[in-house]
Amino acid sequence: MAQTDSDPLKDLVGIQERMNKLFESALARTNFDAEGGVGAWTPVADVFEDATNVLFFLELPGLAQADIDVRLEDDELVVRGERHMDRGAPGEQFHRVERSYGKFVRRFRLRSHIDPASVAAAYQDGVLGITLAKKDDAGKSPIRVVIR
Length: 148
Known about the structure:
Structural class: alpha+beta
Radius of gyration: 24 Å
Helix content: 10-25%
CATH architecture of one domain: Sandwich
Number of helices: 1
Number of strands: 7
Distance between the termini: 75 Å
Mean pLDDT: 82
Low-confidence stretches: none
CATH topology of one domain: Immunoglobulin-like
Strand content: 25-35%
């Protein structure tokens, strides 16, 4: 049986280096300012309801209130914004950039039992809270559909 000079660990490191180069070249061609594009980031959100409201909470640390736009568009709640990267002095060299920057868009489809005129929003400690009141559907009863 012939021995080979193959080192699996060395092969794995070579594959990792090739993958790193592939990702770097792909990222170099990305438009990081495109709304909803590949470079866009997505803030995390919690959405829940209680007896009278539907509530949305989005984590937006580092954003100024002026950088956040909340709108009702047709049957959607749309939250847009942008987190800017503060550049330091000229010649400053970054060693690591792990936080996400740039534009973002989050869209939430609203159900018909929401009162769009009731929207209220508050921004505190990096968390955007949005409240929409439910419409009173107490007078409506289910409609039985006859199957033929």
